[in-house]
From TrEMBL:
<dbReference type="InterPro" id="IPR002180">
    <property type="entry name" value="LS/RS"/>
</dbReference>
<keyword id="KW-0808">Transferase</keyword>
<keyword id="KW-0686">Riboflavin biosynthesis</keyword>
<comment type="similarity">
    <text>Belongs to the DMRL synthase family.</text>
</comment>
<dbReference type="InterPro" id="IPR036467">
    <property type="entry name" value="LS/RS_sf"/>
</dbReference>
<dbReference type="GO" id="GO:0009231">
    <property type="term" value="P:riboflavin biosynthetic process"/>
</dbReference>
<protein>
    <recommendedName>
        <fullName>6,7-dimethyl-8-ribityllumazine synthase</fullName>
        <ecNumber>2.5.1.78</ecNumber>
    </recommendedName>
</protein>
<comment type="subunit">
    <text>Oligomer forming an icosahedral capsid.</text>
</comment>
<dbReference type="Pfam" id="PF00885">
    <property type="entry name" value="DMRL_synthase"/>
</dbReference>
<dbReference type="InterPro" id="IPR034964">
    <property type="entry name" value="LS"/>
</dbReference>
<dbReference type="GO" id="GO:0000906">
    <property type="term" value="F:6,7-dimethyl-8-ribityllumazine synthase activity"/>
</dbReference>
<comment type="pathway">
    <text>Cofactor biosynthesis; riboflavin biosynthesis; riboflavin from 2-hydroxy-3-oxobutyl phosphate and 5-amino-6-(D-ribitylamino)uracil: step 1/2.</text>
</comment>
<comment type="function">
    <text>Catalyzes the formation of 6,7-dimethyl-8-ribityllumazine by condensation of 5-amino-6-(D-ribitylamino)uracil with 3,4-dihydroxy-2-butanone 4-phosphate. This is the penultimate step in the biosynthesis of riboflavin.</text>
</comment>
<dbReference type="GO" id="GO:0009349">
    <property type="term" value="C:riboflavin synthase complex"/>
</dbReference>
C-alpha cells in the first residue's frame, strides 16, 4: 500500500504562493518535473497562484472539495524575520493544509518551506538539500495513487 504504480487518469492541483517567488518558482518547477517524470499529463495539472502561504489552505480546500482533483499540492515559503509573524503564518499554513485535506477527503500535501533564513530556503529549492517541491509532488502522486487503488469512494 502507498507505492507509486500508476498515474494514468490522476489529476492534480498545485496551489503556489507568489510571496518569496525566488523560492516558490523553483519549487514549482521541481514539482512539475516530477509530475512529468511519472507520466502525469500536462492537461491533468492545474496551477493556481495565491498571494502568500497564508492564503493556500482555503484555496486547497475549495479545490479538494471540487471533485476535480485526486490530490492538491501546496507550495510556499515562509522565512523567519524579526517578528512573530513567521510563527503565525507557518502554523496557520500547516494546520490549514491539514484541515483542507481532512475536510475535503482529498490528499492535500504540505510543500511549504518554513526556514530560518533565505539560505536555508534556497538550499531546499534546488540547492544542496535538493528540491522539496519535487519531493512534495512525489508525495502527492503516491497519495493519489493510494486513494485510487485502495480507498475509492
Amino acid at each position: 500500500m502507498g507505492s507509486v504504480t500508476n498515474t494514468k487518469g490522476l489529476r492534480f492541483a498545485v496551489v503556489v504562493a507568489r510571496f518569496n517567488e525566488i523560492i516558490t518558482n523553483p519549487l514549482l518547477e521541481g514539482a512539475l518535473q516530477t509530475f512529468r517524470q511519472y507520466s502525469v499529463k500536462e492537461e491533468d495539472i492545474t496551477v493556481v497562484k495565491v498571494p502568500g502561504s497564508f492564503e493556500i489552505p482555503v484555496v486547497a480546500q475549495k479545490l479538494g472539495k471540487s471533485g476535480a482533483y485526486d490530490a492538491v499540492l501546496c507550495i510556499g515559503a515562509v522565512i523567519r524575520g524579526d517578528t512573530t509573524h513567521y510563527d503565525a503564518v507557518a502554523n496557520s499554513a500547516a494546520s490549514g493544509v491539514l484541515n483542507a485535506g481532512l475536510s475535503s477527503g482529498v490528499p492535500c500535501v504540505f510543500g511549504v518551506l518554513t526556514c530560518d533564513d533565505m539560505e536555508q530556503a534556497m538550499n531546499r529549492a534546488g540547492g544542496k538539500s535538493g528540491n522539496k517541491g519535487a519531493e512534495a509532488a512525489l508525495t502527492a502522486i503516491e497519495m493519489a495513487s493510494l486513494f485510487q487503488q485502495h480507498l475509492k469512494k
